[in-house]
Each structure stands twice: as structure tokens, then as C-alpha cells.
Design a protein that fits this description.
The chain is α/β, with parallel strands linked by helices and 356 residues long. It is 42% helix and 20% strand. It has an eight-stranded parallel sheet. The two termini are 23 Å apart.
């Protein structure tokens, strides 16, 4: 599957967004930005998990002035998330951020907006207009009665017009809602009316389980229609989980192929190994292994379907009765004890990483 919407391309740090570029995965730190060591550690964990862009909250000047030190210790592009205070935007730009998330109509009078736009334009820093169903303008809410898809779109275009009037067009847009149907319809309205790249997400989607379902439906449906250029899965919990789910959404649609794709059977009465424990441990320990090409790894616990399905993967394990069989690209390699399964499979993944 290819993304078919012909969006305008922008560059955020070293990452191309839109215009046929690969769909990028974003996340947001959940530390206090002014706590530099904790924030840097979280950014590095996100980068190791495959995150392409990281956003940071900038609620005050302490956070803004910390961005330069954070930037010096990390390599992934950073976006400053700012509300209401144009001075925070100016300081974030001065500290070297790669992008801004800011709604220009909310940061003050025309002179303040112009100052931010001029600074961003001179540094080649794109601006994301981020409209959220929970923070729509009162006049727009009054006209529409609730945060409808049309209300979200109207708010987004109001902010776009402010930037366009100042000659600024390095823009991407998001129109997020907690309601999946509203989110879908809002992005469709935006996609019909402009060519700016779109950042997809279901805002405040919830915990890992519920949030994964809502985000997969909302983000996945739009990507399947060719709408969307960069994504963020918003989950309550560790941000690394957001990246993992985002990458899995892209893989399921054929929009990202590099890296390890794990396949595991759901389990049934024929299961004879502790499959859930094994899969969890393998996924956790394999997270730091970088494989630059597609690698399909199957972990099956059934003696009926397991051997056939394992043999179809690049690397496959078929387990049963405290033992298993290793397959590589359709060939049976060796049998082993269940206790050896995790280390054996990780060794095989590392071997593939060395030649990828």
C-alpha cells in the first residue's frame, strides 16, 4: 500500500513529511521538560524503539531554556509544544528545536504572531497547527453546538489563514478528537480542502488496550484511504508503547516493512508451552536489536498448525511438550528444549541484524 494523497512536503529536522515520504511515527515525552536527565533518557528510549520525531511540552520558561541542553544530548528531531505564550516559542526556536506545535491565533496579537513566524521561517522550522476537540474556540463551539468534525476543520483553517497571510506555508495540520468517527470525518474534510501534510491521531485515546484499538481504527482507516503523513498513538503509560503500536499500524498496512514483525498464535487447548510468557520476553529483549530490512519471526505453540506456519516465516519456532523446532526460510534447522527457546531465537535475530 502507498499513501496516495498528494500532500505538500515539509522537512522537520532530517525527517521528510508528506510528498510521498515514508509515514513517520511520533511520540511525546511524559517527563517534566526542565528535568533534563529524565527527559533525555526518555527521548533515547523512544529513539531506540523506532520513534522518528519527539514532541516536548513547554509550559514555562524553565522548560524552554532546557531545550538546548536536551537537543545537544539527543539526535531525533524535537518539536516544542506551546500554548498561549509567544515568548516560549521564541525561546524554543533560539534553543534549536526542529519544529513547533502552536496555534497562532492563541498566542497574542498580530505583532507576537509575526515575531514567531519570522523566527520560524528564518530557521526553516515548520509549524504544526494542532486542533483538539477539548480546546476549541468558544465562538466556534457556539456555532456548531459541540466539537463536530466541521468545527475542528473550521478551527484548523482559521489558524492556517493566519500563517498564510504572513507568507508562511511550512505547515502541517492535526484535528484530533477522542471520538473516532469525529476524528475520521474531520481529517477527511481537511484532506479535501488543502494539500498540507496531516498529522494523525486520536487524542486521549486511553490505556494500552483501549487506546490501541481506537488508534488502530482511526489512524489505520485514514492511512488505508491514503490520508496521513505522520502519526502519533496517544496512550496512557510509557511513551515507548505508543511507538510500538504506531509501527505495528504501519506494518499492518504495508507502510513500514523494515524491522522485526512478530507473529504468534492466539493459543488454544492444544497449547503445550507457556506461549504468552515466551512472546512477551522475546519482544522485550529484541526491542534493542536493529534490523534494517523486513524480518518475519513466528512463535507458534501448536503441533498442528505450528510447523507449517513457522516454516513460512524468515525465522520460526514451533513448540510443544517442553520442546521446539527452529525453522529458517522454510527449512527445519534443529530441535531444542523449551528453556532454550528465547536465547536461541534472539541469537538468530542478531545474526540477521548483522547482515541486514
Amino acid at each position: 500500500m502507498k499513501n496516495v494523497r498528494n500532500s505538500r512536503q515539509i522537512t522537520l529536522g532530517g525527517v521528510k513529511i508528506g510528498g510521498g515520504a515514508p509515514i513517520s511515527v511520533q511520540s511525546m515525552t511524559k517527563t517534566q521538560t526542565s528535568d533534563v536527565p529524565s527527559t533525555v533518557a526518555q527521548i533515547k528510549a523512544l529513539e531506540e524503539s523506532g520513534c522518528d520525531i519527539v514532541r516536548l511540552a513547554v509550559p514555562d520558561m524553565d522548560a524552554a531554556t532546557s531545550l538546548g541542553e536536551i537537543k545537544s544530548q539527543t539526535s531525533v528531531p524535537l518539536v516544542a509544544d506551546i500554548h498561549f505564550n509567544h515568548r516560549l516559542a521564541l525561546e524554543s526556536i533560539n534553543q534549536g528545536v526542529d519544529g513547533l506545535r502552536i496555534n497562532p491565533g492563541n498566542i497574542g496579537d498580530k505583532s507576537k504572531i509575526e515575531a514567531v513566524v519570522d523566527a520560524a521561517g528564518s530557521r526553516g522550522i515548520p509549524i504544526r497547527i494542532g486542533v483538539n476537540s477539548g480546546s476549541l474556540e468558544k465562538d466556534i463551539l457556539a456555532r456548531h453546538g459541540s466539537p463536530t468534525a466541521a468545527a475542528l476543520a473550521e478551527s484548523a483553517f482559521k489558524h492556517v489563514e493566519i500563517l498564510e497571510a504572513l507568507g508562511f506555508r511550512d505547515i502541517k495540520i492535526s484535528v484530533k478528537s477522542t471520538n473516532v468517527i469525529t476524528m475520521l470525518n474531520a481529517y477527511r474534510l481537511i484532506a479535501e480542502r488543502c494539500a498540507y501534510p496531516l498529522h494523525l491521531g486520536v487524542t486521549e485515546a486511553g490505556t494500552l488496550k483501549v487506546g490501541t484499538v481506537k488508534s488502530s481504527i482511526g489512524i489505520g482507516a485514514l492511512l488505508a484511504e491514503g490520508i496521513g503523513d505522520t502519526i502519533r498513538v496517544s496512550l496512557t503509560g510509557e511513551p515507548v508503547e505508543e511507538v510500538r503500536v504506531g509501527i505495528d499500524i504501519l506494518r499492518s498496512l504495508g507502510l513500514r516493512t523494515a524491522g522485526v514483525e512478530f507473529i504468534a498464535c492466539p493459543g488454544c487447548g492444544r497449547l503445550e508451552i507457556d506461549l504468552v510468557k515466551l512472546v512477551d520476553e522475546i519482544e522485550r529483549r529484541a526491542g534493542g536489536i536493529e534490523v534494517k530490512r523486513p524480518l518475519k519471526v513466528a512463535i507458534l505453540g501448536c503441533v498442528v498448525n505450528g510447523p507449517g506456519e513457522a516454516s513460512e516465516a524468515d525465522i520460526g519456532i514451533a513448540g510443544g511438550r517442553a520442546k521446539g523446532i527452529l525453522y529458517k526460510r522454510g527449512k527445519m534447522i534443529k530441535s531444542f528444549k523449551e528453556a532454550e527457546l528465547v536465547d536461541l531465537l534472539l541469537d538468530e535475530i542478531r545474526k540477521e541484524a548483522l547482515v541486514s
